[in-house]
Write a structure and sequence with these properties.
heterodimer; A: 133 residues; mainly alpha; 2 strands; B: 365 residues; two-stranded antiparallel ribbon; 10 strands; globular
């Protein structure tokens, strides 16, 4: 589900939705994504937009693109621990998010609670009891 | 009453009834080609305009059926005239209702404060509906049989072939014997079958009509609609081919139909139309009349499909340059329409038009 009129660009929304599906376990490692042309038809948008979303996911190492088998999920929470490079980069983005929350007047326990319940929504993450080895 | 007259009355009554019930066959969120958010489905203007449309088109249908009953038999053009005026009147009623709904929608800003989304269910692509190739077999078999009979009869045919028959079964046009004159209807069979198959294949590649409030459910219902409708269309193609076979047998002088039996050739297409109408009424456009489980998970009444009215000229013709789809579900009526913002759709359109013109011109020669 994307929102064409939202301020977030559509390719970014597609990327976000796919990452959420991976985190929920709906798109496990090895599962196929629709081809860029198919997804563009289904969403009624230009297929360069879908290409851009898939290319972003490829750069992030989450999707493998090949001419033969199309777009396939390259990793999910069960594949292994995150790389240090990713953790560092993610930490910087989290800093920005935390700064936003504090600048807007959110309380510390509010922020911690929101984070806790957010993580609890994804039961299958790496290092959790539910995780498949 | 002659067979021709009966056909006219029947056609006018059927078209009238269909025009009258179209709003009930389309999604409540797409009325008169206008996108309606879920929290406005019971807006007074919608209920009032649906009621008015129903009565206006109903009265027009009854009047024209009465006119068809009272005219003398024989004129083919009269049938065409009646049906065309019926379509024009129906279109008029449609635009009157549409303008009123649009005016209220704009004035009250129906989409203000709503989150407009476009949804897609990825299982549509990972577990796709497949084009029913086996359902092509009857149509192809009939074409092969027709061609085979024609080839067997051709050497023994006289120099002048009867190529057209009046309503009473009397030959009213002859043509000099040629392969083309003898096999025109086989070409028509091939054209009908190829066109329906081609458009269905494009439809299978296209997207389902999705309700943002229930993406998975509406995709599933659309799948059932596509499943039934594609089979009904292919069965209709076979029935039309069968009808052309029955007429061809006359041209090839296997038999000659007279009087009431002339209507025999019209029966298979009538059966096809009946099947298509049953599927349309039972399922509704894109499966909107099918029952299904309530949508799973949280659904907010603030989430709605994108207000895409701007891509629909008059609510009937779809023009969206950014949309790679060639065929999309139509808004008013049952079935699909081309995306005229896509050059490939123009190619498909041109191929069909050129083929029709070529067949008509070749037949007149």
């Amino acid at each position: 589900v994307v929102e064409p009129d939202a301020p977030v660009p559509i390719y970014q929304q597609i990327r976000d939705r796919i990452i959420e599906a991976i985190a929920r376990g709906e798109q496990p490692v090895g599962s196929a994504l629709p081809s860029t042309r198919q997804l563009a038809i289904d969403l009624g948008i230009n297929f360069h937009t879908v290409n851009k979303a898939y290319d972003t996911l490829r750069q992030e190492g989450l999707v493998r693109l090949s001419r033969k088998s199309g777009a396939v999920i390259a990793r999910d929470g069960t594949t292994g621990p995150a790389s240090d490079v990713f953790a560092e980069e993610w930490g910087r983005r989290l800093d920005t998010l935390l700064a936003e929350a504090i600048a807007q007047g959110m309380r510390a326990d509010q922020i911690v609670e929101a984070t806790r319940s957010g993580v609890a929504r994804y039961p299958n993450h790496y290092g959790n009891e539910g995780h498949r080895s | 009453m002659s067979a021709q007259n009966l056909t006219t009355v029947f056609a006018v009554a059927l078209v009238g009834a269909l025009i009258c019930v179209i709003p009930a066959l389309t999604a409540p969120t797409l009325q008169f080609g206008v996108r309606v958010p879920p929290d406005r489905l019971r807006a007074p203007v919608l209920l009032a305009e649906r009621r008015r449309y129903f009565w206006r088109t109903g009265v027009i249908g009854v009047c024209l059926t009465a006119a068809a009953l009272s005219v003398p038999a024989g004129s083919r053009w009269l049938t065409v005239l009646l049906v065309v005026s019926q379509l024009a009147a129906g279109l008029g009623c449609y635009f009157v209702a549409r303008e009123r709904v649009l005016a209220v929608k704009t004035a009250q800003d129906w989409f203000g404060g709503l989150t407009q989304t476009v949804g897609a269910d990825t299982t549509w692509r990972t577990e796709p509906e497949r084009f029913p190739v086996l359902w092509l077999v009857p149509a192809l078999a009939i074409i092969v049989v027709t061609a085979a009979v024609g080839i067997a009869r051709y050497p023994g045919l006289p120099q002048r072939l009867p190529v057209h028959f009046s309503a009473g079964g009397v030959v009213d046009r002859y043509a000099d014997k040629s392969v083309w004159a003898a096999f025109t209807l086989v070409a028509v069979q091939i054209f009908v079958t190829a066109m329906m198959t081609g458009l269905l294949v494009l439809t299978y590649r296209s997207r389902p009509e999705v309700d943002a409030a229930d993406v998975a459910g509406s995709t599933r219902r659309y799948g059932r609609f596509l499943f039934a409708m594609s089979r009904a269309v292919l069965a209709t193609a076979a029935l039309v081919d069968l009808s052309l076979l029955l007429v061809s047998l006359q041209i090839w002088q296997v038999y000659r139909l007279m009087d009431a039996t002339v209507a025999l050739a019209a029966l298979p297409p009538a059966l096809g139309v009946f099947v298509l109408v049953v599927v349309s009424v039972r399922m509704g456009q894109a499966g909107t009349r099918l029952a299904g489980p309530a949508p799973a998970g949280e659904t907010s009444s603030k989430v709605t499909n994108q207000d895409d009215d701007r891509y629909w000229k008059g609510g009937l013709i779809y023009v969206n340059r950014d949309d790679p789809a060639i065929m999309v579900a139509r808004r008013f009526g049952v079935g699909w329409t081309l995306n005229f913002g896509n050059p490939r759709a123009w190619v498909a359109f041109a191929v069909v038009i050129v083929a029709v013109v070529a067949l008509v011109v070749a037949r007149r020669r």
